[in-house]
Amino acid sequence: MFVLCLFSYLIIGCGQEPQDDSSLRTTQIVFHSEREGNQEIYFMDSDGGNIVRVTEDPAIDSDPSWSPDGNKIAFISNRHGMRDIFIYICDIDSTYQLTFSDGDNLDLDWSPDGSQIVFQSNRDGYHNLFVMDADGNNQRKLTDNPLADLMPQWSPLGDQIAFVSYRDGNGEIYIMDLLGENEVRLTNNSRNDLEPQWSPDGSKIVFSSHRKNDEDIYVINANGTGEKRLSTSASDEYNPRWSPDGQLIFFYALFNGEIYCVGPDGDNLIQLTQAEGNNKDLSVSPDGEWIAFVSDRDRDTEIYIMDINGDNVSRLTFVQGLDRVPQFRPTPN
């Protein structure tokens, strides 16, 4: 069913010449959409062709996430009442439920080798972090905090998990090992620090923070040193994402609804989108050549694609109904 993803592995940066679009004919994007009356999971070729509906259920299916090998799609569904984690296996065209607890299970992230999934759940009355095998077996609790641990992100080396914890009264960035031990608090301020994202080499974490009375993008070394503010506008910036080579950070600015990129040292801030409306939910292709994103510039929330420097913008979806959270299919190592 799926077309094999082929990429050139040529990384380019803001302002450089884009590569040709031949890779768009062989890559794929997963997303969720309300085009048929309720929210379902779909995937399509990265040129907008060959749209395939993955789920067909009257419930809400959302937040699809590719496994690192590109053969599985984990997603959230409330088809049995609570929000649970399901998995769609591409090569056998089958869907399985992984969690069955009396609570919501959200914020999933794959281990780099695809063998495990970390997620947050309130099954015990509080929002804590859990891990399980990719088939749903061996579910175990990593944190035990009555004030909420959220947004887990597996490190690229697979040996640590970054997350947000409210245990000190507001959201701070922590890291821990895979047993839920050796927790280290990386940020320390009176406002919320959210959305941690590891750099590809695991040396840094980018995140958003409300510490200056608006949401800004920050970066910090994984050992808690070298914290730096990257965005300085008087508005809010969210949704930070790294380029595959770690040389660029992309984010969404609320004040004008545009997507920007900046170096991890804070230099070379560049606006990539130039359109009315909101441009967000960005995803960078594994080869670093393309950005998929969501925009309501044409009065409906649709998925678009552009090259890494903001040129060659193309609309991929054209059916009325919200299309959200596009994610490129990974290139297996």
Textual characterization of the structure:
It comes from marine metagenome. InterPro entries: 6-blade_b-propeller_TolB-like, WD40. This is DUF5050 domain-containing protein. Pfam families: PD40 (PF07676), Tricorn_N (PF26549). Belongs to the TolB family. The chain is an all-beta fold and 333 residues long. The protein has one domain (21-328): Neuraminidase (6 Propeller), CATH 2.120.10. 0% of the residues lie in helices and 44% in strands. The chain has no helices and 28 strands. The protein has strands at 28-33, 40-45, 52-53, 61-66, 72-80, 82-89, 94-97, 105-110, 116-121, 128-133, 140-141, 149-154, 160-165, 172-177, 184-185, 193-198, 204-209, 216-221, 228-229, 237-242, 249-253, 258-262, 270-271, 279-284, 290-295, 302-307, 314-315, 323-328. The strands form seven sheets. The protein has a four-stranded antiparallel sheet, with no helix packed on it. A four-stranded antiparallel sheet has the order 4-5-6-7, with no helix packed on it. The protein is globular and about 45 Å long. The two termini are 21 Å apart. Mean pLDDT is 91; it is low at 1-20.
